[in-house]
């Protein structure tokens, strides 16, 4: 079987992806800052919010991993600085640290969000975020770029979507045949969605849910992530795949 490292396995989409990968015969190495209630395969406790945390995780992971699934994330309710660190810089640093030691032909899949689709309209900001090398001081970066706390979440996902496209052509990944893609869910019933309801308001979340008839479930997202990590997706690179029940299409159809 393939060896798959999955971040965010203690909850929601990450947990479901780890279960499904295990059912499909993969060796899963789960990563989370919280220990999972039930372990699926091996587990590494660690924190993606700092350079040191990422370095410790990278050192603990073995060589020859087939896929890195960057699923851990936060809602943004703790401010822009930690949100940018966890939702973008942490997963980028882990991806760059592992790439030289991954199996050639492997894959990186990150979970972005429909909330990140504003990247084209905020291209200078997204470029500046992706252009900040290594693990920058995100409090300072948010201040310099004028990212208010309530925008930390969408801005972190804008950076992730732009980076995914650029990374596919970076030597660190391309020269090793490692594909880099993202999946963008709409609202999915997990603890994060409860936080979005508190931050964005019930009405805002409900209007998205009503458009497509229901909220997504972790089981709607996990197979898409695993498909992008599989050899069947070998000709998909630098792409962002929506898994949102048609939410993006519905909004576009109305506004374009
Ligand atoms: P969740 O809250 O159920 O799971 C997130 C997991 O990430 C938790 O187990 C948490 O402990 C872990 N995590 C958070 N910060 C961490 C850190 N610093 N280091 C290590 N682990 C950390 O949320 P959910 O919904 O499963 O989210 C997974 C991904 O899906 C996130 O990136 C989220 O932004 C994205 N997403 C979720 C949507 C939703 O409506 N639920 C919609 C669009 C995207």
SSE-based structural type: alpha/beta
Q: How large is the radius of gyration? A: 17 Å
Question: What small ligands are held by the chains?
Answer: 1,4-dihydronicotinamide adenine dinucleotide
The third-level CATH topology is Rossmann fold
What can be said about the biggest beta sheet? 7 strands, parallel
CATH top level label: Alpha Beta
Q: Please, what is the average pLDDT?
A: 96
**What CATH architecture do you see?**
3-Layer(aba) Sandwich
- Could you tell me the number of beta strands? 7
The 3D shape can be described as globular
- The SSE order reads EHEEHEHEHHHHEHHHEH
Q: Structurally, how many domains make up the residues? A: 1
Sheet with the most strands: spatial strand order = 3-2-1-4-5-6-7
Annotation field: number of helices: 11
Q: What distance lies between the first and last C-alpha atoms, to the nearest angstrom? A: 45 Å
List descriptors:
256 residues; alpha/beta; Rossmann fold; seven-stranded parallel sheet; binds 1,4-dihydronicotinamide adenine dinucleotide
Describe the fold and architecture:
The structure is a single chain. This protein has a seven-stranded parallel β-sheet with strand order 3-2-1-4-5-6-7, sandwiched between helices. It has a single domain (3-255), classed as Rossmann fold. β1 (3-7), α1 (12-23) and β2 form a beta-alpha-beta unit. With 256 residues, the protein is α/β, with parallel strands linked by helices. It has helices at residues 12-23, 51-60, 80-98, 123-131, 138-145, 152-167, 171-174, 191-200, 202-212, 218-229, 247-255; strands spanning 3-7, 27-32, 42-45, 67-70, 107-111, 179-185, 240-243. The termini are far apart. α1 packs across α10 (218-229), α2 (51-60) runs parallel beside α3 and α4 (123-131) packs across α6 (152-167). The longest helix has 19 residues, at 80-98. It is 47% helix and 14% strand. The protein has eleven helices and seven strands. 1,4-dihydronicotinamide adenine dinucleotide binds at residues 7-8, 10-14, 32-34, 47-49, 71-74, 86, 111, 113, 185, 187-188, 190-193.
């Amino acid at each position: 079987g393939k060896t798959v490292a999955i971040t965010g396995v203690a909850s929601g989409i990450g947990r479901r992806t780890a279960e499904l990968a295990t059912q499909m015969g993969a060796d899963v190495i789960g990563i989370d800052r919280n220990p999972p209630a039930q372990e699926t395969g091996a587990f590494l406790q660690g924190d993606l919010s700092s350079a040191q945390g990422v370095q410790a995780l990278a050192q603990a992971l073995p060589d020859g991993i087939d896929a890195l699934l960057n699923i851990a994330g936060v809602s943004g309710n703790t401010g822009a600085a930690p949100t940018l660190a966890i939702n973008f810089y942490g997963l980028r640093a882990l991806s760059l640290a592992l790439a030289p030691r991954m199996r050639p032909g492997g894959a990186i899949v990150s979970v972005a969000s429909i909330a990140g689709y504003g990247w084209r309209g905020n291209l200078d900001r997204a470029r500046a975020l992706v252009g900040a090398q290594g693990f920058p001081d995100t409090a300072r970066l948010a201040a310099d770029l004028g990212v208010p706390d309530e925008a930390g979440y969408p801005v972190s996902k804008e950076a992730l979507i732009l980076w995914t496209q650029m990374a596919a052509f970076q030597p660190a990944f391309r020269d090793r045949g490692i594909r880099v893609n993202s999946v963008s869910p709409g609202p999915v019933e997990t603890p994060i969605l409860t936080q979005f309801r508190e931050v964005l308001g019930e009405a805002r979340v409900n209007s998205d849910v009503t458009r497509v008839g229901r909220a997504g479930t972790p089981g709607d997202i996990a197979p898409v992530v695993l498909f992008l990590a599989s050899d069947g997706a070998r000709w998909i690179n630098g792409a962002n795949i929506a898994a949102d029940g048609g939410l993006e299409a519905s909004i576009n159809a109305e506004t374009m």
